[in-house]
Amino acid sequence: MLNYIFKRLIMMIPILIGISFIAFLLINLAPSDPAEVALRLNEIMPTPEAIESMRQELGLNEPFWYRYFNWLYNVFHLDFGRSFIHRDRFVWDEMIRCLKPTLILATSSFVFTLIISLILGILCAIFANSMFDRILRIIIFLGTAMPSYWLGLLFIWLFANYLDLLPTNGYGSWQNLVLPTITLSFVYISTYIRFIRNNMIENMHNYFIFYARSRGLKERTIILKHVLVNSLQTTITALGMTIPQLIAGSFVVEYIFSWPGLGRLCISAIMNRDYPVIQAYILLMAILFVVCNFIVDVLHLLLDPRLKESGSLS
């Protein structure tokens, strides 16, 4: 087990280095001169003298590899430079400021997704091919196919404009959290209900379920302790990768509901070509995906003894 973890950690090093290189390369592939962009964002006339001065301040006159390793060294010390929009603010400070709202939204969406998916997935498996199951599968199909921005606009029209029940923007109370949470969770709920339902239906026809029924176990015990537990392997792997997806993929929902999180910060940076913020966002989200993928793999191996027996941990 420890040998497997060590090998995976070693394999993560070149992946993270490659991600950092791609993130840094962004500023060099940009069609606009970063120095000119920084000047215009601060409402300074981009004269040749001002551009040259800004290039020296940003270190753009140095060779590429020198700038990359210098930037990478600073990243290890959590220094991503200064924002082009706010020259008096460090990028890391801006990321930390927006991290809390994003984590609140991602956590509430994850919990909501987990609870609703388990309840409806179990019910769909128990009442498979019933009217309830068929109606819910139609809703699941629509939820999977519907984009988050369109769903968010529908919720705003229904719950805010038509029913006047919930606010459409803002941050600070649970009312502000309801619509973004439902919007962000809807697609994932549709996916995981389908996972749980199909896996449980498949496991209901296995021999160990017939054996459990022949022993006289209660149906509730069979469903929860045997069918459900053995049906969660694929779902746990998918749920583990949902965490970074909720954090990195919340920018559309945050923008629609004016939620002051990392996604909204990234959209603002893209619109204003604030390259240091974009670089930091790409790097941190990529690291989050790599780390969560590693944790999910280790957790999956711990929960599935068959992988240990097959030599996956050797």
UniProtKB/TrEMBL annotation:
Keywords: Cell membrane, Ion transport, Membrane, Nickel, Nickel transport, Transmembrane, Transmembrane helix, Transport
Entry keyword annotation includes ATP-binding: no
Keyword Signal in annotation: no
Bilayer topology annotation: Multi-pass membrane protein
A GO molecular-function annotation: dipeptide transmembrane transporter activity
InterPro entries: BPD_transp_1_N, CntB, MetI-like, MetI-like_sf, Opp2B
Compartments where located: Cell membrane
One cellular-component annotation, GO: plasma membrane
Major location category of this protein: membrane
Family indicated by similarity: Belongs to the binding-protein-dependent transport system permease family. OppBC subfamily.
Protein name: Nickel transport system permease protein
Organism encoding this protein: Gilliamella intestini
Source taxonomy: Bacteria, Pseudomonadati, Pseudomonadota, Gammaproteobacteria, Orbales
